[in-house]
């Protein structure tokens, strides 16, 4: 579980946190507030634990060029490019991770040389902590400021030893598979926790409709691009879980009668079909809202991976009458099942927030609502007390009822002018 997250210098997250996270965390606010950048930060943090290079960790599906991952100073991009090697742009991610063995604190600072675009790890730390947050032993990864060497602690039965690596490399020490196994238990734990995080920016317009061949995948992919091969493998290897996906889809969208995925022997690609009101539709023509719900059902029942899942605005394209069911589905994923997963959701929907608030009233210790606002180009994250009425706070009311285009479209959906 991700216990807390702090971000400094990443996109609009100039100085955020640490944000305390719960099994179900709902981050709400209007568009452009910086909610999506939080998802990107989670994605980068996860990928830095396994990626071969920092450039790979900052690549797609993380949005924007690597240079655009750094907070722009006053003066924008030209001012950022004017920074020198002695004062390069940097961003820092800091997380407390919790598993059955305790708490791990991981912190990493990434820098870029604006003139060349070279990315490097300027600082990296991994520590084991007690419940109070204090260190219980020497750090497992640390930076020696005098020598500018990164020190990795090695644990043996009889004694401890250390490896030293030069700072400024193009990959994290945590991603170095040489530091695995019984001699590096803390690194193995942190790597497993971070690599199991999944962030989703579902794209039902293109990625989820593209023709795909069978492939051994354990997830639908950040954009939902692996939806078809995921369902095909699930149907073959875990038919009971496939049936659970179908039940979840039918529960949220009662007009759905059936779900199937089959291999077209002539083209060698997979066909996902959804039967709705007696008529079968392929994934090429089914509504965006239905595809989103199907993707959420897959993530919720995934038997292979994803201890922490983050969703960007799962309500998009979904009929308002189904938004509460979506919230309940994600709530049950975080709070209801035996193998619970931590769920982090961003939203600008008042309907989703209201549904999340009802869950929070029942499980106040397990649900956290966080409001995002933007002040002079910088994102601010403030905890919101779920025990009070949602719309009695003018600031919250304004944040959730901003008259932007998406809320206008949501109003049309309520009046039945679109089908989602």
UniProtKB/TrEMBL annotation:
Under SUPFAM superfamilies, the record lists: P-loop containing nucleoside triphosphate hydrolases
InterPro entries assigned: ATPase_AAA_core, P-loop_NTPase, RecF-like
Q: Which Gene Ontology molecular-function terms are recorded?
A: ATP binding; ATP hydrolysis activity
Superkingdom of the source species: Bacteria
Q: Which Pfam families match?
A: AAA_21
Q: Enumerate the Gene Ontology biological process terms.
A: DNA synthesis involved in DNA repair; double-strand break repair
Describe the location of the ATPase AAA-type core domain by residue ranges: 24-353
Matching entries from PANTHER family are given as: ATP-DEPENDENT ENDONUCLEASE, OLD FAMILY-RELATED, DNA REPLICATION AND REPAIR PROTEIN RECF
- What name does the UniProt record give this protein? ATPase AAA-type core domain-containing protein
Q: Which organism is it from?
A: Polyangium fumosum
* Organism placement in taxonomy: Bacteria, Pseudomonadati, Myxococcota, Polyangia, Polyangiales
């Amino acid at each position: 579980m991700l216990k807390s997250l702090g971000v400094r210098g990443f996109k609009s997250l100039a100085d955020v946190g640490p944000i305390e996270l719960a099994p179900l965390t709902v981050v709400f606010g209007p568009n452009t507030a910086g909610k999506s950048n939080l998802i990107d930060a989670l994605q980068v943090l996860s990928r830095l634990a396994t990626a071969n290079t920092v450039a790979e960790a900052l690549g797609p599906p993380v949005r924007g060029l690597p240079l655009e991952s750094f907070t722009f100073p006053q003066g924008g991009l030209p001012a950022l490019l004017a920074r020198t090697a002695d004062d390069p742009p940097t961003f820092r991610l800091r997380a407390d991770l919790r598993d059955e063995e305790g708490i791990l604190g991981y912190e990493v600072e990434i820098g870029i040389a604006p003139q060349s675009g070279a990315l490097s790890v300027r600082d990296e730390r991994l520590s084991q902590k007690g419940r109070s947050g204090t260190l219980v032993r020497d750090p497992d990864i640390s930076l020696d400021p005098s020598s500018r060497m990164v020190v990795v602690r090695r644990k043996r039965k009889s004694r401890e030893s250390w490896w030293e690596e030069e700072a400024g490399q193009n990959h994290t020490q945590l991603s170095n598979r040489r530091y695995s196994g019984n001699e590096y238990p803390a690194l193995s734990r942190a790597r497993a926790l971070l690599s199991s995080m999944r962030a989703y920016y579902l794209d039902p317009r293109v990625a989820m409709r593209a023709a795909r061949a069978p492939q051994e995948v354990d997830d639908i992919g950040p954009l939902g691009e692996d939806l078809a091969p995921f369902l095909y493998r699930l149907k073959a290897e875990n038919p009971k879980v496939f049936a659970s996906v179908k039940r979840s889809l039918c529960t949220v969208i009662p007009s759905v009668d059936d779900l199937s995925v089959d291999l077209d022997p002539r083209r060698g690609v997979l066909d996902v079909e959804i039967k709705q009101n007696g008529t079968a539709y392929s994934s090429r023509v089914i509504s965006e809202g239905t595809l989103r719900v199907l993707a959420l059902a897959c993530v919720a029942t995934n038997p292979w991976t994803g201890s922490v899942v983050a969703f960007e605005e799962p309500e998009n394209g979904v009929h308002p009458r189904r938004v509460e069911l979506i919230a309940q589905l994600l709530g049950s994923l975080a709070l209801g099942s035996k193998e619970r997963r931590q769920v982090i959701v961003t939203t600008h929907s008042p309907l989703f927030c209201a549904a999340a608030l009802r869950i929070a009233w029942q499980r106040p210790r397990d649900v956290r609502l966080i409001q995002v606002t933007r002040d002079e180009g910088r994102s601010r994250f403030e905890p919101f007390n779920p025990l009070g009425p949602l719309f009695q706070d003018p600031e919250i009311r304004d944040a959730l009822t901003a008259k932007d285009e998406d809320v206008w479209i949501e109003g049309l959906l309520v009046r039945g002018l679109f089908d989602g």
